[in-house]
Automatic annotation (TrEMBL):
Compositional bias (Low complexity): 182-192
Taxonomic lineage from the root: Bacteria, Bacillati, Actinomycetota, Actinomycetes, Kitasatosporales
Location of region: Disordered: 1-21, 178-213
Name of this protein: TIGR02234 family membrane protein
Membrane spanning stretches: 25-43, 70-89, 96-116, 144-164
Sorted UniProt keywords: Membrane, Transmembrane, Transmembrane helix
Highest taxon above the source species: Bacteria
Comp. bias regions, Basic and acidic residues: 193-213
Amino acid sequence: MEGVTAVPSPRPEPAGPSRTGRTSLAAALLSGALGAAVALLATRQQWSEGVATVAGGAFPLTATGSDVTGVPAALAVVGLAALVAVFAVRRAGRLAVAAVLALSGAGTVAAALLGASDSAALDEKAARASGDASATVGALSHTAWPYVAAVGGLLLLVAGLLALRFGRLWPAMSGRYERGGAPRPRRAAAPADPDRPEELWKALDRGEDPTGA
């Protein structure tokens, strides 16, 4: 009985980079989109409240996040635009856009935390309400919304860091070029039918006999 040699079949290579790219892409998209939405929502909410003295009476005042600072909302929009632009560029351009995304998140966090204890917006409202430029607000208190905006900025920062680390594994928007960088070949025009009337007239104009064998 002849011996049989068992030849092991080659095992398929694990799709580690591909799986990592898909996972990091999904995480970055979710983190970036949620972070921008949270930051924008938080800036529309009340961040602080106080009381101004007007004509001997107390006048309640409130300030939203956009009253305190417009930086978190602006950076959230920039971060969202950078998240979309990541897929429109490649190589060095992708790294640059990913850096913009990360910096937008970091800036949103910093601006929100600085605005968490700010009283300038309410002091300005108190001065307008009382007609006294030196008036300040009293009984000042703050809400948790600035910290919610900071959480949104942190999510944007995470999306930017993921893009910096794994962006090279992500797909890009398709263009008129193939993956190798060469332009796609154009389709050849179909040959003209010599029996068509317009082709017969063109042959006569050139001095040819279209009926010749």
